[in-house]
Design goal:
Layout lengths: L14 E5 L3 E3 L4 E6 L7 E6 L2 E6 L3 E4 L8 E9 L2 E2 L6 E6 L4 E9 L6 E9 L2 E9 L5
Parallel strand pairs: 2-9
Antiparallel strand pairs: 1-3, 3-6, 4-5, 4-7, 7-8, 7-9, 10-11, 11-12
């Protein structure tokens, strides 16, 4: 009588990914995915800043309308029966206040050449974006 040993390969540690990216603005939606491969039957354990949060059977964690307090370092691990994987790679989520706020509007008139310009400066934390609109078709 011969017996056959079936070997089941279990992952050492899941791979944690984030969409859309790890730096978002308040009000955005963030989805973390804890991937252990194509196998089923896992329970996932989520951690934020080294604190245990909760368990689920899905392997994804969606945070809708994120707040600044949702920022932090996230990790996951998977469990099947008595087997636990190691912790996943850590992902740092940074949540910034609103996308942009209007800080300054100026109007510039240029006598010669017949152009008029409107300059709007918008800030998003350290970044400053400048939009210049010019109407070259008529004199002011």
């Amino acid at each position: 009588m011969s017996s056959t040993l079936h070997h089941c390969s279990l992952p050492d540690k899941p791979i944690l990914t984030v969409k859309p990216q790890s730096s978002v603005f308040t009000g955005d939606t963030v989805t973390l995915s804890c991937d252990v491969g194509s196998s089923t039957g896992w329970t996932f354990h989520w951690r934020k800043d080294s604190n245990r949060e909760y368990n689920d059977d899905e392997g994804t964690k969606t945070i809708r309308s994120v707040k600044v307090s949702d920022g932090g370092t996230y990790e996951c691990r998977a469990q099947r029966g008595e087997y636990y994987t190691h912790l996943s790679n850590a992902i740092q989520i940074t949540v910034r206040e609103e996308r942009e706020s209007l800080s300054h509007v100026s109007y510039r008139r240029q006598e010669s050449g017949g152009t008029a310009g409107i300059k709007i400066n918008m800030t998003a934390e350290e970044q400053t974006r400048s939009i210049t609109a010019q109407d070259k078709t008529r004199s002011i």
